[in-house]
UniProtKB/TrEMBL annotation:
It holds the Pfam family BLUF. PROSITE patterns: BLUF. GO terms for molecular function: blue light photoreceptor activity; FAD binding. Residues 2-94 form the BLUF domain. This is BLUF domain-containing protein.
Length: 141
């Protein structure tokens, strides 16, 4: 059975950006190695994550995330089954909004769950992240 899980979390404020960037790369590598599809968006010390794949693989990845010291205050947004038989070519996308804007349509395009009722929740969270990042980026210039 395929499964989709989404969560929000915070990066502790004492962790410096280079360490965060390295942790994001490691998360990307781990999720791609496990053939997970999904999206990770980082902005202003917060992370929004969507994982899609075999239920057991998604749940194992979630357990590892809960033990990751760079993630705190983890809130599950949704967990649900996806009615598909396979993910053709899993893609795990990382969007670090520190220096790059978010293209919501492009980010949603590769998610399998984009055609489910939860997709509206994903879009709204992505919009909030994009607005937060835009405010921060314009106030620093």
């Amino acid at each position: 059975m395929f499964y989709s899980l989404s969560l929000l979390c915070t990066v502790p404020s004492d962790i410096l950006y280079p360490e965060i960037k390295e942790a994001l790369k490691n998360l990307e590598f781990q999720n791609r190695s496990n053939s997970l599809n999904g999206l990770l968006v980082f902005a202003e010390g917060n992370i929004f994550l969507v994982l899609e794949g075999e239920k057991n693989t998604v749940e194992l990845a979630y357990k590892k995330l809960q033990k990751n010291p760079i993630l705190s205050k983890i809130i599950t947004v949704f967990k649900n089954a996806i009615e598909i038989s396979t993910i053709a070519k899993p893609i795990f996308l990382i969007c670090d909004l520190t220096f790059h804007p978010l293209n919501i349509d492009k980010s949603m395009k590769h998610l399998v769950s984009r055609m489910t009722p939860t997709s509206n929740a994903v879009k709204e969270i992505l919009k909030a992240f994009a607005q937060t990042a835009n405010k921060q980026n314009t106030s620093t210039y």
